[in-house]
Amino acid sequence: MKISGKLRKAAYSSLALVLVSIALFSLYERISIYSGGEDVAVMAAALTMSKGNYTISQTRKTKRVVKKSKTKTSETQPPTEKPSTSSNFSEKYYNTFSSHSGKKKYPIYSKQYRVGGKRYDNFYVKNNTSYDLNIGETLKKSLGFKLDKNDDVQVLIYHTHTSESFIDCDLGYYYSDFYPRTKDNRYNITQVGDEIEKQLKNAGIGVVHDRTNHDELYTGSYSRSRKTIEKYLKQYPNIKVTLDIHRDSIGSDTYKIKPTFSYQGKKGAQIMILSGYDPGGIYDFPNWNYNLRFALKLQKECETRYSGMTRPLDFGNFAYNMNVNTGSLLIEVGADGNTLDEAKYSGKLLGKALSEVLQNSY
Length: 362
Prior knowledge:
- By secondary structure, this protein is an alpha/beta fold.
- The protein contains 7 helices and 12 strands.
- The relative contact order is 0.17.
């Protein structure tokens, strides 16, 4: 029997279609083994095309890998909620002398930040707002609170980023696996809070120091520390001063800068006082000007007692829980390139200066 050309062509086409279908099914089965069955139909189809081009991102959402930024951290950038939703900090403290096999070594530079913004008398203020600040006139004004001469707790020290820690020794370098956060309170920023607390107690000022870990998840850490503040304000209704003690981070992925000064031959970590501004009411911070008075008086007292101790005061558009009362400040003590001993020394000096400012409010 003779088969017409058209019929023969149709038969060949049908056979080709069957063969392609079998090939696709076979490919589907094999790819399923390796891909878990996700988007394999599209993968198989793409691989049978003439160019055979295919990338996973075309059909499947994958985890985004974000490389660390090489951008230098601003030395006066106020602490903010970090974008991460989880943390992976150590239960232990970083040890320079432990094994760091295969890790790169990066430098730590010492620097004293003295000049920046507007100078008044012996200190500087960086005014990052639209407010026309008259430093001299503001210093003349009274604080927004007065301490009582009694044994009541009137000062709260706390830490929104409680796990912030420091380098363990002053060798001028760190390894690439250096991670300056730990939940071990023997080595983190709570040690600085302890030094401030001691000086206030020595001056007869009632103080409570909270060491709650608020930053196991960075997202929401300020909300959690806010709840801690409110708990203590309820427990000790005579609290007039709330201090959020932090440490800064200055540098990049390949170097760090430690802000330092020297007093009586001993090296300390420079401090930076932050005070917020809220002209439009977006932070619910109507009495910011009273906090600013407190910040300026403390800045001047620190610099008068311990020349070079302060970095320029950071006056900016933020609140960071400073709106809880008129005696609330955020203070950065050193940076992650400083040693814990340097930071503790500054905590001690800060506590002495703070005691003087508070006693003048009686």
